[in-house]
Amino acid sequence: MANIRALVAGNWKMNGFNASLEMLDELASGLREGTASTCDVMICPPTTILAAAANQVPGSGILFGGQDCHEAEAGAHTGDISAAMLADAGANAVIVGHSERRADHGETSELVKTKAEAAHRAGLMAIVCVGETEAERRAGDAVKVVSGQLDESLPDKLTASDTVVAYEPVWAIGTGLTPTAEDVAEIHTAIRENLIARFGDDGAAVRILYGGSVKPANAVELMGVANVNGTLVGGASLKAEDFLGIITAYRP
Ligand code: PEP
Questions:
Q1: What is the pLDDT at residue 250?
Q2: Which of 49, 158, 223, 229 has a Cα at 20 to 30 A from 209?
Q3: pLDDT at residue 88, rounded to an integer
Q4: pTM surpassing 0.90?
């Protein structure tokens, strides 16, 4: 199996102002104290403070990402932001297809694919989110739904360094509920098989993150599951102490 460096990415969603950037100083000093080399660490702040965030902790190794991008490079799209603009503001990556975008803005997997392609054109890593609803899981359709989303959301060409897949069961996001380790293993193994079948060696090395109510208390168990190569963290990424507690799950 490929030796995959884990990624712990924090999604601040619509939380955070310039004043919240103090958190980054705490995060950077926590990383300096010993966890820096064990995994990659990323923060995806709101776009209004992305550039300030990217300039706040130079030399810390912290990566930055946007939370969404438009599929076009420029043009008459009021209120939207392009991948190139995110890159210009200091982003290394962008989340596409988060379930909140799929639900709140009716984003389809076809659209998500064009956003991931736009991210690649701008030199950004695309973090492509997939995940089933509670009803789909109850119906026993979780693997089928996630595989279908992957087939339609991923670009036809990708590499292990330009794409990350985040499995985020919709019912686990912000609810405090998490799937069992067995359920996570089942889905992540299915995702890995899907990636290898379509992208070969690159598919074997693409990072697959688990996301949904990850906290310091459950990070060690969830991150120890086969084919879990890191995590996408919402609520617990807002406080440096909690986020560092999750990062520490990767200490050798
Ligand atoms: C998310 O929205 O990506 C997420 C995982 O949120 P939370 O950690 O708060 O469940």
A1: 73
A2: 49
A3: 98
A4: yes
Please give the span between the terminal C-alpha atoms of the chain, in angstroms, as a whole number: 18
Q: Is residue 237 part of a domain?
A: yes
pLDDT in tens, 43-96: 999 999 999 999 999 999 999 999 999 999 999 999 999 999 999 999 999 999
Counting ligand 1 atoms within 8 A of each CB, the residue from 11, 102, 228 with the most, and so the one to mutate, is 11
pLDDT beneath 70: ranges in the chain: 1-2, 35-37, 251-252
Q: How many domains does the chain have?
A: 1
In a domain, 53, yes or no: no
pLDDT value of position 251: 63
Angle at 157 between CA 155 and CA 162, to 5 degrees: 85
Q: Whose CA is nearest to atom 4 of ligand 1?
A: 234
Q: Tell me, what CATH number does 221's domain have?
A: 3.20.20.70
Q: What distance in Å separates the CA atoms of residue 6 and residue 208, rounded to the nearest whole number? A: 9
Ligand 1 pocket: which residues have CB below 6 Å?
11, 168, 173-174, 211-214, 232-236
CA 12–ligand 1 middle distance (angstroms): 9
What is the structure's pLDDT at 38?
A: 80
SS3 129: strand
> Does the residue 121 lie in any domain?
yes
pLDDT for res 3: 85
Going from the C-alpha of 59 to that of each of 26, 94, 148, 206, the distances in angstroms are 14, 21, 40, 26
Check residue 106 and give left, alpha or beta (phi > 0: left; psi -120 to 50: alpha). left
The token pair at 201 is 């060696």
Is residue 54 in some structural domain?
A: no
